[in-house]
Structure formats: C-alpha cells, structure tokens
Amino acid sequence: MLQERRLNSKGEQYVVGPTGTPLTMADLPPPNTDRWVIRRKAEVVAAVRGGLLSLEDALARYRLTAEEFLAWQKAIDKWGMQGLRTTRIQHYRS
C-alpha cells in the first residue's frame, strides 16, 4: 500500500515512519548497515511502502534479498514491529 507523497518544510520527500514520525532519505539506515535492529528494518519497509525508496533500490542499497525484505514486511503485517525481533522469530513463526 503506497502512501501519498509528502514534502517537509525543507522540500524533502518524506513518509510516516514506523514510530509515527516523518522519515526522509537522510533518516534511513546507512547503506553499510550490518546490524538490523527492529527499528531499522521497519524504517526500510515504511520507506518502500511509502514510495520513498523503490523495492529494487532498497534491495541494492542494503544488500538484501527479496525474500528477506518480504519476510520483514510479512512479519510487520502479521505481528507488528515486534515480529521483526530475530531472537523471537521461532515464537512468531506459524
């Protein structure tokens, strides 16, 4: 589901992030991110869903597989942000 594109006071495109705050390209995790905490995963999913970043760009930028990204998206849809906790992944799988 794509969100309406919005511009902040600086003219930067943004989407509403997972915590309800504006999320711009500058707010996204750096491309060399190796440690994927819940918030960072959710930010990337929100950016793609909101049209801030294309799926192809996200996969290339973060060296992700489509399956990995889709798993994040599915976890958010099914269990919310807590579904992204890697230490609890077995608990959430069904």
Automatic annotation (TrEMBL):
Leader sequence segment: none
Domain of life from the UniProt record: Bacteria
Residues covered by region (Disordered): 1-28
Classification via SUPFAM superfamilies: TrpR-like
Name assigned to this protein: DUF1153 domain-containing protein
Species, as recorded: Brevundimonas balnearis
Organism phylogeny: Bacteria, Pseudomonadati, Pseudomonadota, Alphaproteobacteria, Caulobacterales
